[in-house]
Amino acid sequence: MIAMKLGEGEAIVDVQIATEHDDVLFTTANGQSIRFPVPDVRVFTGRTSMGVRGIALEDGDAVISLSILRHVDATGDERAAYLKRASAVRRGLNEEPEEAVDAEPETEEATGAIELGELRYVELSAAEQFVLTISERGFGKRTSSYEYRTTGRGGKGIVAMDNRERDGTLRAKIGRLVGSFPVEEQDQLVLVTDGGQLIRCGVSEISIKGRKTRGVIVFSTADDERVVSVERLSEEGEENGE
Fold first, then answer.
1. What is the distance between the alpha carbons of residues 58 and 46, in angstroms, rounded to a whole number?
2. Which helix (H) or strand (E) is 125 found in, with range?
């Protein structure tokens, strides 16, 4: 059966089950992302409709992932304060410098620094998710879901990973993005290249970095090799022998 009416040259990227209490996260190959509430996508009466626009794409860009995140009611000030404190806690545990986080306060309602109460900090910590992002040259990172602010659908989005060269023109060093999805600390990852190479690593081995950063090298690829697939192996799957 037809699941969705597609225009010429279009293809379905993913299908997910969501509730009205969730958010949608789109990520593109050129490193843009957009997060908006599920209710922003109206329910269509027929399977053969084209749907509504989730993100406005630049020429040559394409959506590479659709993820579902838990919706959390938090102001820009609260998210910025939480990220600052959580970053300091992680920095103390790891005893190594961490790249700055960015809750984009300059573009939303955040007006200045606030101090979170202990109860609110614990609430936000319990609801926090981490989004893994991987590029075709093997760069990757985990980023707090609070760095992906919720907006209306249909916009150009915000930076999910800095996959440009330092002069801001080329993406040869970092590569386009090939995967972006929520992960858990206990998960395992499998990355495969177009040259037939494979690597498996734990999510816990991948650093937590700011949304606008490029991350760290997860898979050292050859000059003519690219990561083409990244898959998450959940803890539940391991226990079931899958």
1. 29
2. helix 118-127
CATH architecture of 22-239: 6 Propeller (2.120)
CA dihedral 59, 61, 62, 63 (to 10 degrees): -120
Listed residue (227, 107, 218, 233) closest to 158, CA to CA: 107
Q: Are 64 and 102 in contact (CB under 8 A)?
A: no
Exposure of 114 by Cβ count < 10 A (0-12 exposed, 13-18 middle, 19+ buried)? middle
Q: Which residues pair with 22 in a beta bridge?
A: 70
Confidence of residue 40 (pLDDT cuts 50, 70, 90): very high
How many CB atoms lie under 10 A from the CB of residue 79?
A: 26
8 A C-beta contact, residue 61 and residue 156: no
Read off the pLDDT of residues 203-238 as tens digits, 9 standing for 90 and up.
999 999 999 998 999 999 998 899 999 999 976 655
Domain boundaries, the chain: 22-239
Instruction: Tell me how crowded residue 34 is: count the other CB atoms within 10 A of its CB.
Output: 25
The packing angle between helices 76-94 and 118-127, to 10°, is: 80
The Cα 242–Cα 240 span in angstroms is: 6
Identify the CA nearest to 74 among candidates 184, 150, 142. Answer: 150
**Model confidence over 127-159: pLDDT tens digits?**
999 999 999 999 999 999 999 999 999 999 999
Residues whose CB falls within 8 Å of the CB of residue 45, separated by 6 or more in sequence, listed in order: none
Longest dimension (CA), the chain: 55
Tokens of 94: 């790891």
